[in-house]
Amino acid sequence: MRHNVVVSKTAVRAPAIEPMLDDLRALVEVESPSRDLDALRTSAETLASIMHRLLGAPPAIVESPGGPHVHWKGGSNAKVLIVGHHDTVFPKGALAMRPFTVSDGRATGPGVFDMKAGIVQALHGVAALSDRSAVEVLITADEEVGSAHSRDLIVERARHCGAVLVLEPSADGGALKTGRKGTGTFEVRVHGRASHAGLEPEKGVNSLVEAATQVLRIATFGDPDRGTTVTPTVASAGTADNVVPALTTVFVDVRVEHADERERVDRAMAGLVSTHPGARVEILGGFNRPPMPMSASETLFPVAVLAAESVGIDGLRGVAVGGGSDGNFTAAAGVPTLDGLGAVGGGAHAEHEWVDVMAMPSRALLIEAIVRQLSSR
What we know:
With 377 residues, this protein is α/β, with parallel strands linked by helices.
């Protein structure tokens, strides 16, 4: 299918754009919401077919309770692990509302930016290697819901390979992600006692009033000077407007740059106690991803800069960001990790997400050049 895209001159050595867009269309048009095991299986099979065609050998489909992961090995002694995910945040039916489209140099559609374009770029980049024996590609099925059923496999393969490239979308302007905050979600359940709000409110214990007190306390747990944010985000309470609420639930998003801050916030959340007689505070959840410090990428980012220059990408930048990824796990395992090697674009997790189509060939070449340099060490 022709897409009427003009590729920049810097991408002369790059893979052809039309086959990349055809593969991107194939992936986007197979919806793959997290936890939908049937949809994820179809997505994994589509991805495996593309891998087989481009890389010359079939990948393994690794079964898990979170959905099938797709794992391709170029050889038994790989030096580089490329990590991505094929699940998306969008429910079934999103494609009908926002079909895959390429127009004015932009590709749109559910999951196009996070991260199906990044997967396509990486596969075409690896396909461009004359020797693929030094690389593995692992595309998981549950990143968007915490990677509970893939993190052990990711860390195992990362330690085996010794270097990790993560296909999460780039930061603004194509910048790589050289640091990430650790992330956590806490659920605060405040238990009270229901009663009639008009006839006998004094016989109830108002969980909502207790929760309001707790939220004000929780809001003080952040430390902006150390990059720690603690943000109450979603709350629900009560069953009817004439009933003293017996249960209130508050979700709290936490982001930390430093491991000691993770411990401090953990202690602070665990230390919450009720202030109203008869109320009880219960804390669930916690931290899911440890921080990815800037030091995790300090050996790989200079390699990426040189690789970028070799393929005509000048001024490659690295930035630290607040969101987490599977790179947090590999960095915490002590494996050099570089993130943000996916698509250039914007609108992750939003209906307006988009990909800069003209950047796709050069980003594929960037992957190829980084892997080539690392494999020669």
